[in-house]
């Protein structure tokens, strides 16, 4: 059933299960902490697997969600008690709200960190990811049980671990030190994690937390007067050590999540950029090698050869080769200087001049400063080609194309001269140009069509 349940259904189901556990444990006077922890971990793993999150993200999520659940649930119960007199009802309401809050926060983080082509993960596949997930959950659960036994031991007789946790959090130097060291550690171990060496990475994290907590506990349990001596109270030291492990582990996991969110989003943006570039290349190549382009080029060459204009035929072939050489050279380039694109356009216009001896004009109004700005390769050529494709070319009423620019924008404008037969258009060229520019610079291409003119404005990068 859980395999086909939507993420929202999973959240609601576990919220009800949490409430049921609280109700049963309250009726029989049983401590519900461990059972609620298991349910919270199960819900977290279910949602993470359904969203296809990586193993390291799942591990960090499980730890952070359990800590957040304890803190939010405890604070929430105290707040609700001010409005609800019945303790059991307050506990039930707090548990349901906390579970819902944690579940929807997980969904939000999943959207920020990972997407798997819009499809949910198949929970029926017991692959290596799920086996590692079970191992991680088992280890975390064992540590949780061990912590519960430790908190109930004589070490914490008459004291609470939260007292020492709050002492660490309220110490600005200690908190800043823990956060800075966690950031440095996560950044240093990122490359190790990206190589797939998860076990070694988490072992390094564990050693880091133990060492930092041991040193931090010594500093926190030693007063300034006693700093010169090594004499410390072992009980106080152990209490601070355990609290430091909890605090530093949580800080590390939060840092891992934040770092992963930014890393994954950067990777996703790069993939989107590559996909847009690949689609744009396809459209550009299709535009240049479509049958009409070849048919017109061959017809023009045939006419030049039949008229024995061999020099012009040779020049035509040379310019055609230059166009394709430019296309091949820019195949792996995301951006090219506007000057190179204008040179490419001039070669294209020269070919069209051979085909149409008159009937169109191309004017350039581009300052030298703008020539050094960047554009997506073949963008201008596609827009100029569209002007020829969708408008009539005749000497009586010439097609006028103007390419102008300022420091920020490039404008390609032409007068509208409808053809007798309408040319079919998919609009893919302009669509991919728009997507490409939006991906590269978050700036949009502007298209303006009036009764007599068609204008396209693209940003200079």
Key features?
Heat Shock Protein 90; elongated; alpha+beta; 7 strands; 461 residues; 3 domains
Overview of this protein structure:
The chain has 15 helices and seven strands. The longest helix has 56 residues, at 234-289. 68% of the residues lie in helices and 8% in strands. It folds into three domains: 1-152, no CATH class; 156-272, no CATH class; 290-459, Heat Shock Protein 90. With 461 residues, it is α+β, with helices and mostly antiparallel strands. It has a five-stranded mixed β-sheet with strand order 2-4-5-7-6, covered by helices on one side. Strands 1-3 form a two-stranded antiparallel ribbon. It has helices at residues 7-28, 33-50, 55-81, 87-113, 128-151, 161-169, 172-194, 198-221, 234-289, 291-306, 310-329, 338-355, 368-371, 379-390, 428-441, and strands at 336-337, 360-365, 374-375, 399-405, 409-415, 446-449, 453-459.
**SS-based structural class?**
alpha+beta
What would the principal axes of the Cα set say about the shape?
elongated
Beta fraction: 5-15%
Q: What sequence of helices (H) and strands (E) makes up the elements?
A: HHHHHHHHHHHEHEHEHEEHEE
Would you give the CATH topology of the largest domain? Heat Shock Protein 90
The count of β-strands is: 7
The first-level CATH class of the largest domain is given as: Alpha Beta
How do the strands of the widest beta sheet line up side by side? 2-4-5-7-6
Helices and strands, with pairings:
Elements: H1 7-28, H2 33-50, H3 55-81, H4 87-113, H5 128-151, H6 161-169, H7 172-194, H8 198-221, H9 234-289, H10 291-306, H11 310-329, E1 336-337, H12 338-355, E2 360-365, H13 368-371, E3 374-375, H14 379-390, E4 399-405, E5 409-415, H15 428-441, E6 446-449, E7 453-459
Parallel strand pairs: 2-4
Antiparallel strand pairs: 1-3, 4-5, 5-7, 6-7
């Amino acid at each position: 059933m859980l395999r086909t349940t939507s993420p929202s259904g999973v959240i609601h189901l576990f919220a009800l299960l949490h409430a049921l556990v609280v109700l049963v444990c309250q009726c029989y006077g049983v401590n519900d902490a461990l059972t609620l922890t298991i349910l919270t971990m199960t819900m977290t793993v279910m949602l993470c697997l359904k969203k296809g999150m990586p193993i390291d993200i799942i591990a960090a999520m499980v730890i952070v969600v359990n800590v957040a659940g304890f803190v939010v649930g405890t604070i929430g119960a105290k707040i609700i008690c001010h409005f609800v007199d019945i303790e059991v009802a307050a506990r039930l309401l707090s548990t349901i709200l906390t579970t819902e809050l944690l579940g929807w926060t997980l969904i939000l983080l999943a959207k920020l960190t990972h997407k798997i082509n819009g499809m949910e993960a198949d929970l029926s596949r017991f692959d290596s990811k799920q086996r590692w997930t079970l191992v991680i959950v088992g280890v975390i659960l064992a540590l949780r049980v061990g912590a519960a036994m430790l908190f109930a031991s004589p070490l914490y007789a008459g004291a609470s671990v939260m007292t020492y946790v709050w002492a660490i959090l309220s110490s600005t130097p200690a908190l800043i030190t823990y956060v800075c060291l966690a950031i440095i550690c996560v950044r240093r171990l990122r490359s190790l994690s990206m190589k797939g060496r998860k076990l070694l990475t988490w072992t390094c994290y564990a050693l880091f937390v133990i060492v930092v907590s041991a040193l931090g506990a010594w500093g926190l349990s030693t007063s300034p007067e006693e700093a010169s001596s090594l004499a410390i109270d072992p009980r106080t030291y152990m209490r601070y050590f355990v609290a430091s492990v909890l605090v530093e582990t949580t800080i590390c996991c939060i840092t891992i999540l934040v770092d992963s969110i930014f890393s994954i989003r950067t990777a996703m943006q790069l993939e989107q950029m590559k996909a847009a570039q690949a689609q744009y290349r396809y459209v550009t190549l299709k535009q240049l090698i479509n049958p009409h382009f070849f048919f017109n080029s061959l017809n023009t060459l045939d006419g030049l050869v039949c008229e024995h204009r061999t020099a012009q035929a040779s020049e035509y072939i040379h310019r055609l080769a230059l166009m394709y050489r430019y296309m091949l050279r820019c195949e792996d380039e995301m951006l090219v200087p506007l000057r190179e694109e204008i040179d490419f356009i001039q070669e294209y216009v020269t070919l069209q001049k051979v085909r149409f001896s008159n009937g169109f004009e191309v004017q350039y109004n581009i300052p030298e400063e703008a020539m050094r700005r960047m554009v997506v390769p073949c963008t201008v050529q596609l827009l100029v080609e569209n002007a020829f494709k969708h408008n009539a070319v005749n000497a009586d009423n010439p097609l006028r194309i103007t390419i102008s620019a300022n420091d920020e924008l490039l404008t390609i404008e032409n007068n509208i001269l409808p053809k007798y037969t309408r040319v079919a258009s998919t609009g893919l060229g302009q669509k991919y140009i728009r997507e490409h520019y939006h991906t590269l610079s978050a700036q949009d291409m502007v298209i303006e069509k009036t009764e007599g003119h068609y204008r396209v404005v693209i940003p200079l990068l």
